[in-house]
């Protein structure tokens, strides 16, 4: 796997670390459990990290030195793709030919690197975009900076080159086709998941004690990277509106996370907003929390708000529901899949303060409805596990390998793994059986490679 701009071992919830980091780590661990060893290449951002780290059984993280450790913004990283790629290729060259069976690139920067690796190693390239510039730019918060045009160009190139693409939802698959001209035949929809063993219902009172929160308050939490796209200000404004009409309301907003992206330009913007609205004493800020503390945040909250302008999925929404906490979310992107409107939470159209205040008030003032939503939320979240995601990825990899094997001279040879897992790699290369759909796909792939237009 390639994850150029952010490490799967970084603490998510600030800077460039968020859902993609969790996704890469969790899927890698699940794939390894099924006998598919994973090596993840990421750019080293500190001199303290060793060149190789073990993230779990069968999962290595390779910290590639490419450019200075600190001070490089994500937007500067296209300048470092050459040294990064060179190091990835050198690493592979230390092994016998055929060391890797497949490359899975996460985010477009990794897609650019994976494209070259695919051509050199003659193995298929699978690409997951995680977010898309064209989608983000179509739904910007007021005054927020658009993604550069160069990113959209880079994404288009990778989408044209990838042997298969993985989309989180059917809507993302449609966006890949409509906005980027992707070949629908090469897209697999694989929903992400949550660590259901960790995120499960628990004792709310104990969670509040652990976090130092009052027992009798109504608590609404926001969890994630603090930036205009994630719109925590929408929640703060809605809370202020509720408190304006009912100052006696025992309401607390809990914000968990740190500045990220364009939010780094004004890291105190949310604190200033709360002060401006006169609700400083009703807002609690916590820095990014590791998973064993985050589960207590979800349990402590009566409601989790996800007011984003765009979300390709929204892992926080699933994690919160898995603990039995209903979610109030913006009706955008993958959140329509992650939350069942009226059953496990509410979806709000737009970002207007009166609409958000009304939805917040409705749920908080109907404890019976909120309780009913708790059980449904746990049931709904149970559909999203990383095990399930790994099954989907393996199916996608199998299709990529069989299509690739059918058009590449020599194909992808089945190999036996004699690494620490000692398992045969049949789950990857056993995709030799094409079936009718596979044959059509491989003909299309062959035409594309040969530059044949119909
Ligand atoms: N997260 C975390 N600690 C925090 C805040 C967030 O571990 O303090 C994790 C959270 O568990 C989730 C991810 O960061 O898995 C955020 O993913 P999401 O899809 O909600 O948002 P993204 O960061 O991808 O925009």
Summarize this structure briefly.
The protein is an alpha/beta fold and 454 residues long. It is built from 17 helices and 13 strands.
Keywords:
454 residues; alpha/beta; six-stranded parallel sheet; binds uridine-5'-diphosphate
The major β-sheet equals: 6 strands, parallel
Tell me, rounded to a whole number, the average pLDDT: 91
| N-to-C order of helices and strands | HEEEHEHEHHEHEHEHEHEHEHEHEHHHHH
Bound ligand species = uridine-5'-diphosphate
Q: Report the uncertain regions.
A: 411-427, 429-435
End-to-end C-alpha gap: 34 Å
Helix content: 40-55%
The outline comes out as globular
Query: Structural class, from helix and strand content?
Result: alpha/beta
- The Cα radius of gyration reads 23 Å
How many runs of DSSP E, i.e. beta strands?
13
Task: Characterise the protein shown here.
The chain is an alpha/beta fold. The chain contains 17 helices and 13 strands. The protein has helices spanning 19-33, 81-93, 107-121, 133-138, 149-161, 170-180, 204-211, 232-245, 269-276, 291-300, 315-322, 335-338, 353-364, 367-381, 386-407, 426-429, 435-450; strands at residues 38-43, 52-56, 59-64, 103-106, 125-128, 164-167, 187-189, 218-223, 251-256, 283-286, 303-306, 327-330, 345-348. A six-stranded parallel β-sheet has the order 10-9-8-11-12-13, with helices on both faces. Helix 3 (107-121) links the parallel strand 4 (103-106) and strand 5 (125-128). Helix 2 (81-93) runs parallel beside helix 3 (107-121), helix 11 (315-322) crosses helix 14 (367-381) and helix 15 (386-407) packs across helix 17 (435-450). The longest helix has 22 residues, at 386-407. The protein is globular. The model is unreliable at 411-427 and 429-435 (pLDDT under 50). Uridine-5'-diphosphate is lined by residues 12-13, 18-20, 22, 223-225, 256-257, 288-289, 291, 294, 313-316, 319.
